[in-house]
């Protein structure tokens, strides 16, 4: 039988602390939240591996969905500089785990998921863990969730080819949008800050993440 508590400690010590993650709240959240409980039973033995975990195959032209590995999640959360009173939106929440970690850092969280079945299982997992400051909602990821905007923090739960303007417009003044821009093996994780109607961006590290559905640029045909 797997000792998940021990596996969780090893994950934090070898995947989080060693990658310049120093935020005590992030370390505490990842040390305590049972990542395995956000996966189907057959996938739980793999919960703490240093890799993205497939939770749904690609279908209908949409990419496969993954629970992203812990290290880039922790580093993106740290880059977002989340405060305890912040209102946050996570775009792409196929398991609920990232939303659970975010909920330990922010005051309240909206978790947007485009796949209704994944959203239902994420909501169930959050409820079972007693996490009551996350609202799981469904809709197209690229549209964000404007009915609850504006947000202090928007976190993209996977890589995107481009960030639609409506997402930027859902940030509060001083709000931060954090996500990986591009599908390469070393794409930049960016932090965009809303300041005086501008959205200045800076790269904080390079990483590869699985793509989110809905963020591909339209392809043009050359005749």
From TrEMBL:
Biological process annotations from GO: methylation
Keywords, in A-Z order: Methyltransferase, Transferase
CDD domains assigned to the protein according to its UniProt record, in alphabetical order: AdoMet_MTases
Record-level GO cellular component terms: cytoplasm
UniProt GO MF annotations: protein-L-isoaspartate (D-aspartate) O-methyltransferase activity
Superkingdom, natural source: Bacteria
Entry's family note: Belongs to the methyltransferase superfamily. L-isoaspartyl/D-aspartyl protein methyltransferase family.
PANTHER family, sorted: PROTEIN-L-ISOASPARTATE O-METHYLTRANSFERASE (PTHR11579:SF18)
Protein name per the record: Protein-L-isoaspartate O-methyltransferase
């Amino acid at each position: 039988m797997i000792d998940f508590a021990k596996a969780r400690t090893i994950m934090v010590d070898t995947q989080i602390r060693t990658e310049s993650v120093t935020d005590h709240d992030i370390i505490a959240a990842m040390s305590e939240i049972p990542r395995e409980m956000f996966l189907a039973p057959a996938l739980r033995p793999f919960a703490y591996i240093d890799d993205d975990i497939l939770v749904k195959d690609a279908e209908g032209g949409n990419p496969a969905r993954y629970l992203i590995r812990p290290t880039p999640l922790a580093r993106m959360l740290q880059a977002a500089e989340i405060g305890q009173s912040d209102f946050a939106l996570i775009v792409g929440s196929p398991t609920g785990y990232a939303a659970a970690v975010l909920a330990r850092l922010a005051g309240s969280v909206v978790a947007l998921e485009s796949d209704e079945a994944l959203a239902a299982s994420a909501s169930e997992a959050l409820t079972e863990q007693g996490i009551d400051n996350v609202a799981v909602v469904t809709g197209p990821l690229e549209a964000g969730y404007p009915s609850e905007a504006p947000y202090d923090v928007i976190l993209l739960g996977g890589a995107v080819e481009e960030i639609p303007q409506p997402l930027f417009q859902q940030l509060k003044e001083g709000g931060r949008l954090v996500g990986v821009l591009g599908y390469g093996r070393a794409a930049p994780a960016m932090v965009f800050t809303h300041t005086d109607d501008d959205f200045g961006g800076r790269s904080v590290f390079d990483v590869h993440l699985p793509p989110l559905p809905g963020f591909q640029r339209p392809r043009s045909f050359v005749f």
